[in-house]
Amino acid sequence: MRVVLLPLALLLSALPALVPPAWAQAYPSRPVRLLVGYPPGGPTDLAARLAGQQLSEALGQPFIIDNRPGAGGTLAMGLLAQSTPDGYALGLGSNGELAISPHLRASLPYDPLKSFIPISRIGASQLVLLVNPSVPAKTVKELVGLARGKPGSVNFASSGSGSTAHLSSELLKHMAGIDLVHVPYKGAAPAMADLMGGQVQMLITGFSGAVPFIKSGKLRGLASTGAKRLVAMPEMPTIAESVPGYEVSSWYGVLAPARTPAPIIALLHRELAAMVKRPDVAERLTAMGIEAEGTSPAAFAAQIADEIAKWGRVVKLAGVKGE
Fold it and tell me: Which of 14, 231, 263, 294 is 20 to 30 A (C-alpha) from 145?
């Protein structure tokens, strides 16, 4: 029997084909970091913690929430864009930093369409149009009629210029053809306080934060902002029922740095899509005001592109100046 000895150089050149790449080995083999651009307790953070818990249980490794608040969520997205694309750094992104901030900030440490691979959109939460009970309008149609009858007589609060609350009202103003006066605040809490006090008349804000005030009668909920009625409050109409085509939501999805290997993306998407189909998870999301989705990476990428174009038009119409 003849033994053939291969040259050392030839053996070394064959090693990459013989040794599987890192992503093909058991993934994940160590803890995974999930970056969140907001403080603990908010909807983005809660969605991330739910996703992290489910992924930990399914894949057998801790998915550690890494809260990096700052610059409207763009700080965390910048860190994600700079992370090694090996599946051990993920991010929970929302419409604020991915679709709105690109139109409001002169420079960003990432490109929302090129720096990331969207994995799956977990879900979306609708907003709610609230008015002070003293406002003589019990429907969106009546509110629009009031604003048309006396242009500039109806004002609306927001949590700040360029916020989702602000731009949602600007979109309504444009689509309904009415004149509303913007009153910006430094945060949602003072805006809500002045709405209850009657200093301002209208506010579009998150559903979960609005529910207690609607139920107590301190504020009147006229409509939700989604394409269909809220599962948690089906008796409330949508704005689109009075202003066709109107649709706004705050959405949340998991992303990875660009160039993360496709098998890792496929694995994470499979687990996230299975997660949101579980009745117990869907119930927890609903309790947070989030309707489960579980979109594919391609669908999520298309949604981000559509949202960027949509909010770019709104920012231009509203005349909001970037920083």
Answer: 231
Average pLDDT, whole number, for the chain? Answer: 90
Q: How far apart are CA 11 and CA 95, in angstroms?
A: 50
Q: What is the model's pLDDT at position 14?
A: 44
Alpha-helix residue ranges (DSSP H) falling in 28-163: 43-59, 74-81, 95, 101-104, 140-149
Helices in 198-248 by DSSP H: which ranges?
Answer: 207-216
296 band by pLDDT with thresholds 50, 70 and 90: very high
Q: Comparing 30-125+249-318 with 126-241, is the CATH topology the same?
A: yes
Whole-prediction pTM: 0.85
- The DSSP string of 172-212 is HHHHHT--EEEEE-SSHHHHHHHHHHTSS-EEEEEHHHHHH
- Rounded to the nearest 10°, the torsion over CA 290, 294, 300, 302 is -100
* DSSP assignment letter at 96: I
What's the start-to-end Cα distance of the chain, in Å? 77
Token look-up 């269909």 returns 228
Confidence check: pLDDT of 164 > 50: yes
DSSP strand pairing (32-36 vs 89-94): parallel
Judging by beta carbons within 10 Å of its beta carbon (0-12, 13-18, 19+), is residue 75 exposed, middle or buried?
middle
**Is the domain 126-241 a CATH 3.40.50.970 member?**
no
22 DSSP assignment: G
Would you kindly state where each structural domain of the chain is located, as residue ranges? 30-125+249-318, 126-241
State both tokens at 267: 């694995």
Residue type, 131: V
